[in-house]
């Protein structure tokens, strides 16, 4: 049922019947200036270097849907499984024609994971150029962004495999920088749910656009 419900929601949203509940929002919320208005948690501005040594950040992700995770290239434990499932998301046929859909992986070991290493890693895992970005930069800025923005724990730990602890979650971020889904990055079942819910989110935006073009009279 976990897999069926998002798919049904996707079909209903794309066939013009807009009575299915939309994806929720994750993170702290605050009251807006207007009665009943809610301000949802959003990802702060950021900019790092990608696998090509080019600046890449939130400005490049403006008005885009993306999925994000944290990893490091020498990780001997959960990272290989996570990046394999990230690639499954990348290779989903329905997403290949979406120019506003991206994948972003932040290294938690930026001292060793230079752009050159990330480039080699990207090629090794089969990342599509211009679709999947691997980011490195100031360690503390990455860790602060992980905790404050993506609500993910990242830290150096000599007792951990590879020397670092980090979240195994994959997060779905909408065009307004809100977190709309959190998924276990090593679970095929959960990543299938992520794929379905990306379709739901795309359909949600398509539905809103149609309603703006053809307002109810």
What characteristics describe this protein?
single chain; five-stranded mixed β-sheet; 217 residues; two-stranded antiparallel ribbon; 6 helices; 34% helix; Glutaredoxin; alpha+beta; 11 strands
How is the secondary structure organized here?
Blueprint (H helix, E strand, L loop, with lengths): L3 H11 L14 E3 L6 E3 L6 E3 L5 E3 L7 E7 L7 H12 L2 H4 L4 E7 L7 H11 L6 E4 L3 H10 L5 E3 L7 E3 L2 E5 L5 E6 L3 H26 L4
Parallel strand pairs: 5-6, 6-7
Antiparallel strand pairs: 1-2, 3-4, 5-10, 8-9, 10-11
Mean pLDDT: 85
Q: Structural class, please?
A: alpha+beta
CATH topology grouping: Glutaredoxin
**Alpha-carbon Rg, integer:** 18 Å
Number of domain units: 1
- Largest sheet, described in full? 5 strands, mixed
Please state the oligomeric state of the protein chains shown.
single chain
Specify the CATH class. Answer: Alpha Beta
CATH architecture assignment name: 3-Layer(aba) Sandwich
Distance between the amino and carboxyl termini: 37 Å
What percent strand? 15-25%
Strand order of the largest sheet: 7-6-5-10-11
CATH homologous superfamily? Answer: Glutaredoxin
Q: Please give the number of β-strands.
A: 11
The helix-strand sequence is HEEEEEHHEHEHEEEEH
The shape, in one word, is globular
Number of helices: 6
Poorly predicted spans: 1-16
Percentage of residues assigned to helices: 25-40%
What does this 3D model show about the protein?
The chain has 217 residues and is an alpha+beta fold. It has one domain (4-213): Glutaredoxin, CATH 3.40.30. It is built from six helices and eleven strands. The protein has helices spanning 4-14, 79-90, 93-96, 115-125, 139-148, 188-213, and strands at 29-31, 38-40, 47-49, 55-57, 65-71, 101-107, 132-135, 154-156, 164-166, 169-173, 179-184. It has a five-stranded mixed β-sheet with strand order 7-6-5-10-11. A two-stranded antiparallel ribbon has the order 1-2. It has a two-stranded antiparallel ribbon with strand order 3-4. The chain is globular and about 45 Å long.
């Amino acid at each position: 049922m976990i897999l069926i419900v998002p798919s049904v929601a996707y079909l209903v949203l794309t066939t013009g019947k807009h009575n299915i509940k939309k994806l929720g929002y994750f993170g702290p919320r605050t009251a807006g200036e207007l009665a009943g208005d809610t301000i949802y948690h959003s990802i702060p501005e950021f900019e790092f270097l990608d696998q090509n040594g080019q600046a890449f950040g939130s400005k490049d992700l403006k008005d885009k849907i993306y999925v994000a995770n944290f990893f490091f290239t020498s990780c001997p434990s959960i990272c290989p499984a996570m990046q394999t499932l990230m690639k499954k998301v990348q290779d989903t046929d329905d997403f290949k024609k979406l120019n506003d859909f991206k994948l972003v992986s932040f290294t938690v070991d930026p001292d060793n994971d230079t752009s050159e290493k990330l480039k080699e890693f990207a090629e090794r895992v089969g990342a599509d150029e211009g679709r999947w970005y691997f980011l490195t930069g100031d360690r503390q800025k990455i860790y602060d962004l992980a905790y404050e923005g993506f609500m993910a724990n990242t830290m150096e730990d000599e007792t951990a495999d590879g020397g670092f602890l980090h979240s195994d979650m994959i997060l779905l971020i909408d065009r307004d920088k809100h977190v709309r889904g959190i998924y276990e990055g090593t679970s095929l079942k959960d990543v299938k749910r992520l794929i379905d819910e990306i379709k739901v989110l795309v359909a949600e935006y398509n539905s809103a656009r149609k309603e703006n073009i053809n307002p109810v009279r």
